Write a sequence for this structure.
């Protein structure tokens, strides 16, 4: 397939002696939504952190939007600017207001004029429905609001791909929905997304493909309907029976 | 509130118990009071041991009787809650009270009531108290050192100019705010140096050349502290980042630097800067002693600053680095906009600590012959005309240093408040 925006070939990663990722092969096409699931410690987070090189892989290759991830820092910074990421712990900058959180990178990385960056930020904040909190500081917001702000912050860089690393795992149950709603809206807008999550309802609703990982390997990769209706491997069946 | 051990008397005669208690306490305090100020001893006929302990014992009994829950008087309830919660606390209260009664009035009368300030020679000091005339006569020396009297306006103007330029940040417009950091880290120090150099040192524009050996007193304290402070902070920042760098060369150089300077005493560094250092320099190369001293202290304190700042850097969660990187920021952008603002905010108390220590270390430059405030005192007290007034001088210096340091720590509290955003 030629229009794959992310191409991972035979990628291996070790933490010291421990191999976290084993021979990962993955291709993600433009505008596709992929959900990655699996038990904890299976390497899902490490996999998506490798895609914008927050972790370095030791073997194999990762090509994002035509650029290979290697030692070249200029390439990496350019790719990171195109790949948005949302973290489990939100990781907002606590010393900046919500608006400044959103405009910081556009102004200083993309060299956008301040006025334009602010307009863009307000637009994105409006989409995730926290525009009235723009002047507050992250510490004054609820977890759900913070996570939605983190999504808006990533979107302000106008990324081609969005990575979500368990975005709802650190939230109270009643706040999960507001974050998932924001993500569903984003998916409907046609964004390429890779989401690590345990929210199977979300997977069923928006995902084109579901990947199941265990012990650093991709055990199963299938169309969403197929994945839930007709899982092939026993490990997947066991996982699904426990989680659903 | 810790548990209060209350006496539980019969409620019917509560007032009687309270009155006796209060009277006992008052007798105890009164005895110490009379003893101190009127040389009266209520129990002069008793044996010595008892007469000394009497006020303490009787006041303790009094406090014990007063310690009643819901005594009916708000004042006594407050007293019980705060200073009379147990026998031990009552004893501490009494001890502190007695020490204050014994100590404060004599020092007060020495410093103010019996002190002299009139006249302009030693003969004017006739009283038993402090001789502030000494400070008055030597005041200009303590402030300006050996700098010629008629040229003092140069020091004053230079300081006013430097302070004036320092307030630039308050008036900067929104557009100029961007360059504030650059201004304070690069432009301001250079301008301050030029002003101090051309105005105080002179030699240009028809100003008489006055060598740095003549500088001294409080103004020298300010000059040395000021330059060391503004230079050692950026140095510390760079070293702190260097020590956490992923490049081995940078990291090891930073570690080596920090460990070297933290391992040697400041006094040896100062000696080296003034005695050894010139020996390694080419013959025709001249560097002023004051400049060498400022460089030496800056390099020394920079190492301490670096470790304080590193503490702040290490306390930031890894997620902050991840988030900044994931937005495409490089090393410098990440540190300037995300990491350092948070880390520096965290280390304000530690940095303030280092800076206070620096200001109070400046008297050490006396060992290389530069006489700042404390140094001038040491010179003045050996003046044959004014022998015997070292105490006044040191109290004066202590007060000045205390004011400077208190102002600095107050300022650091303000900064902490100003930048408090989370939680």
């Amino acid at each position: 397939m030629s229009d794959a925006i992310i191409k991972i070939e035979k990628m291996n990663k070790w933490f010291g002696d421990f191999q976290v990722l084993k021979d990962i092969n993955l291709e993600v096409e433009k505008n596709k939504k992929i959900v990655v699931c699996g038990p904890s410690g299976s390497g899902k987070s490490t996999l998506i952190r490798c895609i914008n090189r927050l972790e370095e892989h030791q073997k194999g290759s990762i090509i994002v939007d035509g650029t290979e991830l290697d030692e070249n820092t200029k390439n990496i910074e350019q790719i990171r600017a195109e790949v948005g990421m949302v973290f489990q712990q939100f990781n907002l900058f606590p010393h900046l207001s919500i608006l400044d959180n959103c405009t910081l990178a556009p102004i200083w990385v993309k060299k956008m004029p301040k006025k334009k960056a602010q307009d863009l930020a307000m637009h994105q904040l409006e989409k995730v429905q926290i525009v009235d909190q723009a002047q507050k500081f992250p510490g004054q917001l609820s977890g759900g609001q913070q996570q939605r702000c983190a999504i808006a912050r990533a979107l302000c860089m106008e990324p081609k791909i969005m990575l979500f690393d368990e975005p709802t795992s650190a939230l109270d149950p009643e706040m999960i929905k507001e974050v998932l709603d924001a993500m569903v809206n984003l998916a409907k807008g046609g964004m390429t997304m890779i989401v690590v999550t345990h929210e199977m309802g979300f997977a069923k609703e928006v995902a084109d493909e579901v990947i199941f990982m265990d012990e650093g390997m991709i055990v199963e990769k299938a169309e969403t309907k197929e994945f839930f209706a007709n899982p092939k491997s026993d490990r997947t069946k066991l996982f699904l029976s426990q989680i659903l | 509130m810790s548990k209060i051990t209350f006496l539980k008397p019969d409620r019917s005669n509560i007032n009687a118990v309270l009155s006796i208690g209060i009277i006992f306490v008052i007798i105890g305090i009164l005895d110490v009071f009379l003893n101190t100020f009127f040389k009266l001893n209520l129990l002069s006929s008793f044996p010595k041991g008892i007469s000394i302990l009497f006020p303490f014992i009787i006041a303790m009994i009094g406090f014990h009787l007063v310690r009643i829950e819901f005594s009916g008087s708000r004042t006594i309830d407050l007293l019980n809650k705060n200073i009379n919660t147990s026998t031990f606390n009552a004893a501490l209260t009494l001890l502190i009270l007695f020490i204050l009664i014994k100590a404060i009035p004599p020092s007060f009368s020495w410093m103010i009531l019996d002190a002299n300030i009139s006249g302009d020679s030693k003969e004017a000091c006739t009283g038993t108290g402090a001789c502030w005339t000494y400070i008055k006569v030597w005041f200009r020396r303590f402030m300006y050192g050996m700098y010629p009297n008629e040229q003092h306006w140069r020091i004053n103007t230079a300081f006013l100019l430097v302070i004036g330029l320092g307030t630039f940040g308050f008036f900067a417009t929104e557009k100029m705010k961007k360059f504030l950091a650059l201004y304070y880290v690069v432009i301001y120090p250079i301008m301050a140096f030029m002003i101090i150099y051309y105005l105080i040192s002179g030699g240009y524009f028809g100003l008489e050349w006055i060598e740095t050996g003549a500088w001294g007193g409080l103004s020298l304290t300010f000059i040395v502290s000021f330059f060391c402070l503004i230079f050692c902070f950026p140095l510390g920042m760079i070293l702190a980042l260097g020590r956490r760098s992923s490049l081995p060369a940078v990291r090891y150089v930073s570690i080596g630097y920090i460990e070297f300077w933290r391992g040697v005493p400041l006094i040896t560094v100062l000696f080296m800067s003034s005695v050894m250092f010139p020996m390694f320099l080419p013959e025709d190369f001249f560097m002023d002693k004051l400049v060498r001293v400022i460089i030496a202290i800056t390099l020394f304190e920079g190492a301490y600053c670096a470790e304080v700042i590193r503490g702040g850097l290490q306390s930031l969660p890894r997620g902050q680095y991840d988030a900044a990187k994931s937005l495409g920021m490089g090393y410098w952008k990440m540190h300037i906009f995300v990491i350092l603002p948070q880390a520096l905010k965290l280390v304000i108390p530690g940095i303030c600590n280092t800076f206070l220590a620096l200001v109070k270390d400046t008297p050490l430059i006396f060992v290389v012959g530069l006489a700042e405030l404390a140094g001038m005192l040491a010179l003045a007290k050996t003046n044959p005309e004014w022998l015997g007034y070292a105490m006044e001088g040191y109290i004066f210096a202590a007060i000045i240093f205390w004011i400077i340091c208190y102002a600095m720590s107050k300022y650091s509290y303000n900064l902490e408040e100003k930048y408090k955003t989370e939680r």
